[in-house]
Design brief:
The chain contains five helices and ten strands, in the order βααββββαβααββββ. By secondary structure, the chain is of the alpha+beta class.
């Protein structure tokens, strides 16, 4: 079982935003696919877990973004499990294009019982998990636990979760949260700004047909997003922007 795993992706036309650069949610698709491929190699894929009424869920993400590539570029992703506790594991991703670092990402994962929707102990499902942590590179910063609560006057929209929003776990797909986040901003915002850092907290499952309210606050280069369902916070995100850089 390999402690580290590598994959390569071509930036297709539908992976870019209107500027012609790889969008952050599409980069998120790449890293989720890479994580799934590595989990399959390790014998702990979602399909394997499903046989015992279990699945992987992600609780948080931290993006450190340097310079996202353009259409037809090839992106190389190197991933490893950098840390484990009894109920969670941190998976890191080191992402390059033409040998140049474009982003580092850390993510935290849980295994839950699909009947109770409660976490299970990782080492009971996969006894070798602690032996798989790799120290071949310095781990990236772990995602930040966001504590803010936005005032009601920051309300932006209400979204009803549709068929196309849900994933194999029958809840809102993690990258749809990011797409809903960025849809709150005017198109010109991303022409004059680039995302430098982003922290995402997935706090509770958002399910099909639920109507969620979304709130937004901007302070200079910091934007904060909160999603609520029936008054309960389901998701928080915070990102920092800077001036655009040259394309790869």
């Amino acid at each position: 079982m390999a402690k580290v795993f590598d994959s390569k992706y071509r930036v297709n036309y539908n992976d870019s935003d209107y500027t012609g650069k790889l969008s952050l949610p599409k980069l998120g698709n790449y890293i989720l696919d890479t994580a799934g491929l590595h989990a399959t190699e390790l014998g702990i894929s979602m399909q394997t877990l499903a046989k015992n009424n279990m699945t992987w869920v992600m609780s948080g993400l931290h993006f450190e973004v340097f310079n996202l590539p353009t259409i037809n570029s090839f992106v190389d992703i190197h991933t490893k499990i950098s840390n484990c506790t009894k109920i969670s594991s941190q998976r890191d991703f080191f992402i390059t294009c033409n040998g140049e670092k474009i982003a580092n990402v850390s993510s935290e994962w849980l295994i839950i019982n699909t009947k109770t929707r409660r976490p299970v102990f990782l080492n009971e499902v996969f006894p070798d998990v602690f032996d798989l942590t790799s120290e071949d590179e310095i781990s990236v910063e772990k995602y930040k636990h966001l504590r803010f609560v936005l005032d009601d006057d920051k309300y932006q929209s209400v979204n009803k979760i549709k068929y196309s929003d849900i994933d194999i776990n029958k809840h809102l797909y993690s990258m749809r949260y990011l797409e809903m986040t960025f849809d709150l901003f005017d198109i010109d915002f991303f022409k004059s700004k680039k995302i430098k850092r982003m922290d995402v907290n997935f706090l509770s499952e958002v399910l099909y047909n639920q109507e969620v309210k979304i709130y937004k606050q901007q302070n200079e280069n910091i934007s904060q997003i909160e999603m609520r369902y029936e008054g309960k916070t389901m998701y928080r995100a915070e990102f920092e922007t800077s001036e655009p850089t040259n394309t790869l």
